[in-house]
């Protein structure tokens, strides 16, 4: 793969992260190739051991329209950090993230480019995620739509300090300046820390329901929910106040008394906490006060993503 992927059409590169799901990836790539104008696509394969590379080649050989899909296969599964590589390889000013089970509505990328042009302070445009099949909106989007941060004059939507990474547009320079996704967190819940870092670098983050991405529904198991709790605590160790860290640890202690399976969360925290504390750089008191509004709206650390 070349060091930078040249954009032949449009100003947004689509970065797709995948691991061992070739059939789902095939559906997503076919949907993305139908977009007009056709965006450049970079597939970041997180150490798949199946036919993922062959799927990408097949879509390139038999697909119609659009630039060649670039593929890079990693030797190890690096989690969310793999997306950083996709952004680094893009040459366009904007990047649209999607997972291998997510694809974008036809006009959303062009509309996003227009909004970025109109609002130079905006670094992130969070899209509305429509569940497929069924057509319902993801509950996280409902929370973003009613964000307690409100809508600031001159911005294209409500201000948020979180998003669903599989349906978001980012300004490439903002993403890289903020450092991208953090290697301590891997996934899930990696969006929260990136949102904080983007905000304190001076970028606005907005939810715009006119931008639409489709998400093929999949089951969210208990193991994933426990990883979300772990990553919220690790994020707090790196960016939040000592008081917030104590609150989250206290919630986990109570939950562990109710469900001993949460002992696995404690074990994982002990492994990753030293690296998190090494990177500790708390947000300013003003930003901490702002995020506290979201803490109240969210409740204990059991929900999926911040508003």
UniProtKB/TrEMBL annotation:
Species the sequence originates in: Rhodococcus olei
Family: Belongs to the glycosyltransferase 2 family.
TM segment ranges: none
Domain annotation Glycosyltransferase 2-like: ranges: 13-154
Keyword vocabulary terms for this entry: Glycosyltransferase, Transferase
PANTHER family assigned: GLYCOSYLTRANSFERASE, GLYCOSYLTRANSFERASE EPSE-RELATED
InterPro entries attached to this UniProt entry: Glyco_trans_2-like, Glycosyltransf_2, Nucleotide-diphossugar_trans
UniProt name for this protein: Glycosyltransferase
Superkingdom of source: Bacteria
């Amino acid at each position: 793969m070349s060091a930078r992927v040249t954009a032949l059409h449009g100003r947004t590169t689509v970065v797709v992260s995948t691991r061992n799901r070739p059939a789902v990836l095939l559906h997503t790539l076919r949907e993305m190739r139908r977009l007009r104008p056709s965006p450049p696509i970079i597939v970041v394969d997180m150490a798949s051991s199946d036919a993922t590379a062959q799927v990408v080649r097949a879509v390139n050989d038999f697909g119609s329209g659009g630039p060649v899909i670039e593929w890079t296969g990693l030797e190890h599964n690096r989690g969310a950090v793999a997306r950083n590589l996709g952004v680094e390889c893009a040459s366009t000013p904007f990047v649209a993230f999607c997972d291998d089970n997510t694809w974008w509505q036809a006009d959303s990328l062009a509309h996003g480019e227009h909004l970025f042009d109109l609002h130079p302070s905006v670094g992130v445009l969070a899209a509305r995620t429509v569940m497929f099949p069924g057509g319902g909106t993801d509950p996280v989007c409902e929370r973003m739509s009613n964000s307690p941060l409100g809508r600031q004059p001159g911005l294209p939507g409500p201000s948020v300090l979180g998003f669903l990474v599989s349906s978001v547009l980012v300004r490439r320079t903002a993403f890289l300046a903020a450092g991208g996704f953090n290697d301590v967190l891997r996934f899930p819940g990696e969006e929260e820390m990136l949102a904080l870092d983007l905000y304190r670098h001076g970028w606005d983050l907005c939810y715009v329901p006119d931008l639409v991405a489709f998400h093929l529904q999949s089951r969210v198991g208990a193991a994933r929910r426990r990883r979300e709790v772990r990553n919220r605590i690790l994020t707090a160790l790196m960016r939040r106040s000592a008081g917030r860290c104590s609150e989250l640890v206290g919630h986990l202690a109570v939950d562990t008394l109710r469900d001993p399976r949460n002992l696995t969360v404690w074990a994982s925290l002990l492994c990753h906490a030293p690296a998190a504390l090494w990177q500790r750089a708390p947000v300013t008191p003003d930003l901490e006060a702002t995020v506290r509004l979201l803490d109240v709206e969210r409740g204990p650390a059991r929900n999926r993503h911040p508003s």
